[in-house]
Automatic annotation (TrEMBL):
The gene is SNRNP25. GO terms for biological process: mRNA splicing, via spliceosome. CDD domains: Ubl_SNRNP25. SUPFAM superfamilies: Ubiquitin-like. Keywords: Ribonucleoprotein. It holds the Pfam family Ubiquitin_4. Signal peptide: none annotated. This is U11/U12 small nuclear ribonucleoprotein 25 kDa protein. GO terms for cellular component: U12-type spliceosomal complex. The keyword Ribonucleoprotein applies. Residues 57-149 form the Ubiquitin-like domain.
Length: 149
C-alpha cells in the first residue's frame, strides 16, 4: 500500500515538473524573455522583467585575464557592492551547472585575492551602493589582483 502511494506521488511530481517546464518554455518564447536559456530559473525571469521596467541594471564584469567576454550580471538599481558580488557568484554557479562542469570555487579566496574596480577605483566598501561609485546600467567593472602588503 505504501509503495503504491509513493509511486502515485512520484508520478504527480513528475507531471507537475513537466507542466512547469512546458510553461517556462512558453514564457521564454516571449520577445522580452527570448535571450534567456532554456533551463531558465524563476529568479532569471524576474531579473529580466525588472530590467525591462528599469528596476534593475546589467553590470558587465570582466575577468582579470580578459579571456572571455564580460559576464552580464543583473542587479537591482539600488544594489550594493556586496549584492553585486552575490549576483556574480550566482551567475557563475548557473553558468557552470549549464555547462555540465560543476566545480567548486572558493569565493573567500577570490575576494581575498582580487578586487573589483570601476574607473580606476576599487569597490572596497561592500555596503556602498554601486551608484555611489558612478556605476550605471551596462557599465563594466573589472577584477584586479590585490597587491600584497
Amino acid at each position: 500500500m505504501m509503495e503504491e502511494e509513493e509511486e502515485e506521488e512520484e508520478e504527480a511530481h513528475a507531471e507537475a515538473v513537466a507542466r512547469w517546464q512546458a510553461g517556462l518554455a512558453q514564457l521564454v518564447r516571449d520577445p522580452l524573455l527570448c535571450d534567456l536559456p532554456a533551463q531558465v530559473t524563476p529568479e532569471e525571469i524576474c531579473s529580466q522583467v525588472a530590467l525591462e521596467y528599469g528596476q534593475a541594471m546589467t553590470v558587465r564584469v570582466r575577468r582579470v585575464d580578459a579571456s572571455e567576454a564580460p559576464m552580464p550580471v543583473v542587479v537591482v538599481q539600488s544594489a550594493t557592492v556586496l549584492e553585486l558580488k552575490k549576483a556574480l557568484r550566482r551567475f557563475v554557479q548557473l553558468r557552470q551547472e549549464r555547462q555540465g562542469g560543476v566545480r567548486h570555487i572558493s569565493w573567500r579566496h577570490v575576494w581575498r585575492t582580487y578586487s573589483l574596480t570601476f574607473g580606476g577605483e576599487k569597490l572596497a566598501d561592500d555596503r556602498k551602493k554601486l551608484r555611489e561609485y558612478g556605476i550605471r546600467n551596462r557599465d563594466e567593472v573589472s577584477f584586479v589582483k590585490k597587491l600584497r602588503q
